[in-house]
Amino acid sequence: MELKYTLTENDYLQQQLYLASKSKLIKKQRIKSRLLVFIMLLGIGFLFYMAQNIFLTYYFGGSGVICFFLYPIYLKFYYQRHYRKYVKENFKNRIGIISTLLFKEDVLEAYSENIGSSEVKFSAFENISEIKDYFFIALKTGVSIMISKSEVIDIEAVRSELKMIAEKIGINFISELDWKWK
Questions:
Q1: CB 137 within 8 A of CB 103
Q2: Which of left, alpha, beta for 52 (phi over 0: left; psi -120 to 50: alpha)?
Q3: Please, are residues 137 and 125 in contact by the beta-carbon 8 Å criterion?
Q4: In 3D, which of 143, 139, 127 has the Cα closest to residue 175?
Q5: Global pTM?
Q6: What is the rounded CA–CA span in Å between residue 24 and residue 166?
Q7: Please, are residues 121 and 165 in contact by the beta-carbon 8 Å criterion?
Q8: 3 state DSSP class of 167
Q9: Contact call for residues 15 and 179 (beta carbons, < 8 A)
Q10: What span, in angstroms and rounded, lies between the C-alpha atoms of 161 and 105?
């Protein structure tokens, strides 16, 4: 099976957001920063409580509670902005370039105009993920190959090919069609 497609800046952004949502380190960072802001605001409120300033106690205590619930919304947009800048800087030479993937017996052959060609054995695959608009082939090296469904004519054929490969080499085919960046 051969696929030819072009990836956009938004495609690379969605890939980075998906990978970030699966990263234990980033999940841990988000929780730590949320708790840190909450504890700092409550701590300042407690200091004003000790100083007998009830208005500022309520102000900072209330701000801490409000921030605890609204901070995830801020982080969502913060990470989107961060990864958008990252994509613009690091993927600028890949955006709009025609890529070709050729699935052979035990090898995935990838070719791109300005990058060249490479072969990846199926045994180097860690898992294959599917979300609403993309397929991601995660490699054991930490790299991920992305296939945009909007560029594929027969999505069912690609899905069945990827499922067959996953079953053949004994890796997970992860289907998260309802995934959204949060």
A1: no
A2: left
A3: yes
A4: 127
A5: 0.85
A6: 24
A7: no
A8: helix
A9: no
A10: 11
Nearest to 16 by CA among 70, 88, 101: 88
Contact call for residues 57 and 49 (beta carbons, < 8 A): yes
Cα 72 to Cα 21, 31, 56, 65, 93: the distances in Å are 13, 9, 24, 13, 32
Euclidean distance between CA atoms 150 and 154, whole angstroms: 10
Q: How many residues appear in the chain?
A: 182
Pairing of strands 172-176, 125-131: parallel
pLDDT tens per residue across span 132-169: 999 999 999 988 999 999 988 889 999 999 999 999 99
Query: Do residues 122 and 170 make contact, with C-beta atoms less than 8 angstroms apart?
Result: no
What residues contact 131, with CB distance under 8 A and at least 6 apart? 18, 176, 177, 179
Outline where DSSP puts E strands in 11-112. Answer: 98-103, 107-112
pLDDT < 70 positions in the chain: none
Q: What is the 3-state secondary structure (H, E, C) of 96-162?
A: CCEEEEEECCCEEEEEECCCEEEEEEHHHEEEEEEECCEEEEEECCCCEEEEEHHHCCCHHHHHHHH
CA distance 21 to 179: 10
